[in-house]
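=== Structure Prediction Worksheet ===
Name of assembly: unnamed complex
Input type: mixed (protein and possibly other molecules)
Chain count: three
Listed entries:
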Amino acid sequence: MTRAEFPSRWHPADFAGDPVLTARRLLGSTLVRTLPGGVRLAGRIVEAEAYDCPRDPACTAGRFHAARSAEMAIPPGHWLFWTAHGHPLLQVACREAGVSASVLIRALEPLEGREVMLDHRPVIRERDLTNGPAKLVAALGLHPAQVSRTPVDSAGLHLERAPALPDADVVTTARIGLREGRNLPWRFHVRGSPWVSPATPSMDLLTLPD
DNA sequence: ACGACGATTCACT
DNA sequence: GTGAATCGTCGTG
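=== Predicted Assembly ===
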């Protein structure tokens, strides 16, 4: 029963460390949603960001994370949803329970279940299907109440591990949509992928302090 | 109870 | 590129 499955899955214990390293390492892995009937919706992770309180200005300066006790209580390796502008965003809790650290999955390259995803989220241009954090949640038909707080190797939503991408295939940039913490290079995406979020081009050229 | 504020998206110009 | 919609969360009264 405990023999390794192939392809191997990410397990909760894999998220006990630094969310920045984890976000980088997650690129290339596959996010799989298995519908009740057994149909698989899957996408390759091509963009991810890290959040890491309290050293993260995006959290501390703001009173934001501090009071979201429900999110902070989530143990590492479990799914959670941050909401912004009314949209639920899929993340994985990192470090340890009680600490607000996480990886935000920002974009996918659709691999399986394209028809169903298009049904969930009708779009004109195919590339708009999953090229944003709230878009991929909609395309996969994820509902926070059902998924939040479940482990990353759950039957309904799990992660299939891929070999780490070489540095040459990864672009590191500042995070998107923040006021504070813009100087931190905590966003990663697959170089040249047409499936990353539209905000990418300008961010690529951003100069980061050392 | 009320108002301000986004870890976004969409429709425009 | 600019601006509006949107709604749950959080701070204040």
